[in-house]
Amino acid sequence: MLRRPKPTDSEADLLREQRSFLTSGAPSAANVVRRPDKRRGEAGEEEGHSGENGESRRDVVTIEDLPDQLPSLTPAPPKKSRFKASRVTFEDDDPEAKLDRHDTHISAVLSRIVERDISSSPISLPVFTGLAFPKVLHRSETSSQVPLSSVGGKRSIFARQIAAQRLKEGKTPLHGSPEDARTPELGEQNLPAETGMDTDQCDAAGGPGASGPMLVSGQGLQGPNGSGETMRIHKENQAKLQAMSQSEILEEQKKLFSQLDPRLVEFVRSRKAQSVLSSASASKSSEEHPPPQNVSRDSSSAAMLFQKPQEVEMEGEEEEEEEEGRRPPPAVKEEDLPVKPQKEWVHMDKLEPEKLEWMRDLPAPRRKGTKKAMQARFDFAGTLVPPTEDLPTHLGLHHHGEEPERAGYSLQELFLLSRSQIIQQRSLALGTLANILSKARAGEFLSGLKGSVTSTLLDAGLLFLLRFALDDGVEGVMSATVQALRALLVCAEDEECLDCTFSWFRGLSAFPLLPSAQEDEDEEDEGLDESLRETAKEKEERKSDHDVARQDVVKGLLKMKLLPRLRYILEVVRPSARAVQDVLEILTRIARHSSSSATQVLDCPRLMETVMSEFLPTSWTSSRHSQSVYGLPLASAMKLLRVLASSGRHACARLLNSLGVRERLSCLLSAEPSELLLEPPEALRITTEAYRLWAAAAGYGQACKLYIDLYPALVKALQGVHTVLPPSDPLLPLQLHRLLALLSLLTQVTHTAGCHRELQAGMLSSQGEECPPPPPVSWGHVTGLQASLLGHLKGFVQSLDIPLQKDSGLTLIPAYLVYLEAYYYQLSRQSCFRPMETLEELELLTSEVLLPLMSHSVVQGLIKNLKSSSVVCNVQPRHLGPETTPNLPGLACPGWRDRPGPVVPSSPFPLLTGLALLLETITGIHKGLSRKFSGLLLSEPVIGYLRSCSQATPNLSHTRAWLLRHEHHLIYLLLQLSHRLVPIEPQVAKHASLYHLVALVLLPWLLPGSEYLAHELLSTIIFSKDFISEGHSGGPEAVELGELKLHEETPDHTSLQTVGALLREACIQLPSIRGCFLTHLAHLESSVLASRDALLGRGPWINSHLLPELTGPTLPSDWPFLPLVSLYERTGVSDGGGLAVEELPQGALQAVTHCLQWLLLLEVWREESLKVIPLVAKLARLSCVFLSSSDLFLERPVQKLTWGLFRLLTRGSRLDSLDLSVPPPGLASFQDLYSALLAQYEAVSFGDRLFGCWVLLPLQRRYSVTMRLAVFGEHVGMLRSLGVTLQQLSIPIERFTSPPEDSLPLLRLYFRSLVKATLKSSWCPVLYLVALSHVNSFIFSQDAAAQEVETARHSMLRKIYYLTDEVLRNHLLLFRVPQQHLQLGFETYEQLPPIRAKRLGSVLGLQDGSDDKGD
Known about the structure:
Elements: H1 11-24, E1 31-33, H2 45-50, E2 60-62, H3 95-102, H4 107-110, H5 139-142, H6 157-168, H7 184-189, H8 193-197, H9 199-206, H10 226-243, H11 246-259, H12 262-288, H13 293-305, H14 317-326, H15 411-417, H16 423-441, H17 453-459, H18 462-470, H19 475-489, H20 492-500, H21 536-542, H22 545-551, H23 553-559, H24 562-573, H25 577-593, H26 595-603, H27 607-615, H28 635-646, H29 649-657, H30 661-669, H31 680-698, H32 705-709, H33 711-719, H34 732-754, H35 756-765, H36 779-782, H37 786-798, H38 803-827, H39 835-855, H40 857-863, H41 909-925, H42 934-938, H43 940-951, H44 958-981, H45 986-989, H46 992-1002, H47 1011-1022, H48 1035-1049, H49 1059-1068, H50 1070-1080, H51 1085-1095, H52 1122-1131, H53 1148-1165, H54 1175-1182, H55 1184-1187, H56 1196-1209, H57 1212-1217, H58 1230-1244, H59 1249-1256, H60 1265-1274, H61 1294-1297, H62 1304-1315, H63 1325-1339, H64 1347-1361, H65 1366-1374, E3 1375-1378, E4 1386-1388, H66 1394-1414
Antiparallel strand pairs: 1-2, 3-4
Helix pairs in contact: 12-13, 15-16, 16-19, 18-19, 19-25, 22-23, 25-26, 25-28, 28-29, 28-31, 31-34, 34-38, 37-38, 38-41, 41-44, 43-46, 44-46, 44-47, 47-51, 48-49, 49-53, 50-53, 52-53, 53-56, 58-60, 60-62, 62-63, 62-64, 63-65, 64-66
């Protein structure tokens, strides 16, 4: 490679380099080209080479990409002609022809010459001087002679010197600006004296006006008084403006703006700006060199003219305030500058105010008087800064943005600052975002901001910003990012509420925090075979990070490899204690997301090993003087393990066996908290979490060997219950949580021990089949604790009378009740069960503990809060809760202490749930005790609460589901207690219908994981004769009396079946109805069994403490229609219009009969339970009777029951609420269903009256005309068999005939079907009457209408008049009103009324007249 020449190289060196270059054969960077010399006639390069003789040639060096013309040394934009763009030229245009075309004759030029009128212009002679030549002036002498602005802009030194000389002489400067050229003294010298004196007054009164016009100077007008004429016109304009109001001026201004060219408007506004600047400079120059009076007057008049040019576009006080706020501040003057410019400074002789604005003091912040939204700004603590708050600048919240006077940073500015190159700025921005997120998630901005801050940040890409920032190499930035991530994902109050409910019945179970919005299937997969479709995992992998994060924040973070980065931070960076706590809480939230997310946390390389070794060591030293948390056990790390263990039994087994959790539990729980070498609060927290983790493991039947090993420590902890709870202890809440966790552990161990016998027997009889092994703990290991815990319970019940111990007792009693329920439930299943001793023990428990507890005034006061603490009865408005986003669900717990709810200390839910749970178990063992607890069900607060529940419609979401589940448990337990008491206690039986209604509304509320409760309700209460008291207390007879009264009013209804007999038959068939519905719910068997294992504490069979995904309730709200819908799905109308099967499946008729019997019973006696099902949905579901088979609706029992339901659903009040425009759930529209019904009716109805009524129902006038067009257009043949009479139709005929039809196509179809005899009274009486009524109203209508409608009226009337069918002609012309009791169904006139006769005559007269003209 050749080297570059150096300055030290000699000539020999250069020649040597040249030789080496030539021998290398490399191409040169520059070429020698022979250029022809055109002046000498030399040839080009090719010719030169071909010549023989070698003439002397010039060497020209050419370089590639070098332009032919040298660039300008002072670059400037190319000049553009404003006329060139408007001219169109062609290459072949002849220039001479083009010139002739434009300049045709010399007159074309001479005719455009306009001579200027100079008769009124002054003639100024040159100034006489004694000098032969002008004096040579230095720049320093001329710079202060005259201001730059007074000579009209940028001028030369000579021009400014001449202008200064003329100003000294009192003359107008030459070559002035257009404003100066108006010669105001000429405008005033010809005016009367009083006009000049009144100028100031005119200015003050005229407002927008001034003493002279701005745009027109008057020069060029003929005559000596041209400027005077201009002033006269100006005065006239001023007078008009003063006579107009402000609104009129605004209106005229808008008219002008709409008519004028926008460029002209901009020109006028630019003149105004020049005038303001010139007036300001003139006033300044007048201080140093006072000009003549007329000059200053002209400057002030120009300034006054454009004082308010376009600032009158808004109206109202608010807009005026904003207008004033938007006016620019006064320009910066030279004396305001901190540093005064010197005259020797080049280019500093001109003051540029706009460049000096940043040096001005900030204006005071003020609220804009406008209704438009303002940008939110926050301080570094994340608090919203009000727009009117004036904060000091030393806080660092002011910066040079769009609103420099407002303190605080916007979200956009914080995003920008977080990517700064300066570490402190990045940390500050991320910390501020963390504080904003914390406050936003707590709901602090809901009242002050429009929209959701969290959603806005996520949509703006916050997740990616934080993930990028997490890769920063600076520890401070990483810690701030972790803090922001924790603020986004974790809500401390959500975790606190879940911890509070851990000791409740099934409190260790929780819903996974998965987003509820489900994706639609990809269009690409439509029509593909199942084997060819992509799996959910493949679709997830194919999506981008952004798409995943938009649907699920936690999944998006996992896809962005968050877990390995967090492991790196914990293991390598080893950040501060705050950052470690944040990381552990983030991991806990990820584990709560789903079992798959928890598995990813467990599978992340070295993550859990780092947590176990650094934050859950087996040995450590005292932490009193340590700033780092490394090497010390942390409660948050133990909580992470507990949440991971709750995700599944396999995850729990991995923790216990592979990661050494069993040893950690032994280490932490074998000693007292005071002996753990930790701070007392942290020692209590970590032992509490250790007990909870152990309880979760014991819930699977795991870690029970540890119970035997640590039994002495557990007994010691229980013995010190009353001694460790002094009322004044500040650690009392932590001690109570620790004791509750211990009781939860003992409850789970008791359940597991109770399953030992069953598992052992199952293993012996399994014969090689897979069966869980029996746990190491047996029933004998747990019986010894019951007496001690029962003594504790008695002591806490007695302590309710002591005010200082009341709260502690109320907190602990529910956990003791849940433990006793587990003990007695499992005791009754053991081989060592002794009934007599147990019955006596239960009677003693009832008399000494339970009845005193129920009757205690403190408990009675709690029960009064039942309704106010309910989630079911009190639907909170969505806007009052904290911020939640669909892709990041939460529990909405912020502020839970300040509002009523099931978790607050004043809530009776934990106590009542534990009590009702225990009562259900002991009354199942000792049925004689049931009567003693009837007072609970009969108490006024409980009855009022159940009534409110029967009328409630709770919403389902993640924010409510976790609390709704616990409330559903209480309602179910109260209903189960009523199931034991209704048959034996008359007072309770009086409210049987209320309990039954509550059971019916509770059934479709039950959430995933409560399938066993739904099965129990269906098996016991729902179909129980004891709870349908109307069936055996004269209910059917009462219905029959009502039917009899109806028959007396309308005696023609005798053909219809009475509902009373049908109800009596349904009450008899209740056991069969129950069997029918349980059969149709058999597909839920696996879910019911899993739910049963969880609710009954069958730990070894439980796979996960995470409940199923919250996709909706267990049963649909229209579950009473389930047999009908399932039959239609199996055998209904196929896509081609025919039936999928020829015959009904076996037992289908009986199932449909039982379903219709149940629906009839609910419609008559439990109508409120079906209020959640819209009437249109009921009709759509019942239509399956006609669509499922060709003859099902003809079966006698089905016919009777469907008639009864049809009459119930078509009562007057029901018809008013029927809206067919709303699509029924599960259908695209009702019209699609109706089309299927019409096709089915034509095919298989055989003129059935019931099917006919069903088809006639949607043809009422108030519903869509599309369905009536379908009948009279596509399915007109069905009119031959639609023989429903007016008496058989239970719908008033007025609903079909009123108001008159306004659809012209339908009226033509009505008329055609009548005239062509496809619609006859004997075939279809109802629609014959409807068509007759509408056609009669149409032809005799006097309303003004379009020409087409009027022509149709005349045509129909003429055709009717000339009809050969006299009967139809008389019906159409003489129809009066519908009368259902008459034989024809309508009343007619004896003769045509005069007004109709006149109408008919006029139409026929017009026809005759047109015939005459034609003749």
